[in-house]
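Observation: inputs received (chain + zinc ion).
Thought: call the complex predictor directly.
Action: predict_structure
Action Input:
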Amino acid sequence: MTRTGIGYDVHQLVTGRKLILGGVEIPHDRGLDGHSDADALIHAIADALLGAAGLEDIGFYFPNTDPRWKDQPSRVFLEQIRGLLHRQRAQIVNVDATLICEAPKIKPHIPAMKAAIAAALAVTPAQIGIKATTNETLGFVGRQEGIAAMAVANLEMAGGNISP
Ligand SMILES: [Zn+2]
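Observation:
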């Protein structure tokens, strides 16, 4: 049985933080604010994977009150989720994601993002789709106050069994 999950995340752009998206550091004058490295793309993908497996959301497994996750690279979340999916006998079919980001330019970094995410999930880069679009200068993304990401994930569940 194939199951689909959806994920969405947004973080605020602030000075004094590195910009990390899809596990890749991108040169920029500001970075995303958050407890971990605030990698909105990975967080959206994490929620899509968890949702497809019928599990709790990213905040349940990696609460921002837990000092273990402070300033951690978000690929650690994907590595943990890989273990959760394995226990559910769920195999990743594919992940597709869109970054909504006015600046900087994302496209040159997409191959590195795919490689980083695929490595964390132990799948091939061809199973990871990443696109980037701007918000046409509209809203908080358009004003460069934050960066948003959305993702879907498909899982093949052995036997279709979902256990909590
Ligand atoms: Zn997040």
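Thought: report the result.
Final Answer: The CA atoms of residues 114 and 126 lie 8 Å apart. The chain has one domain: 2-160.
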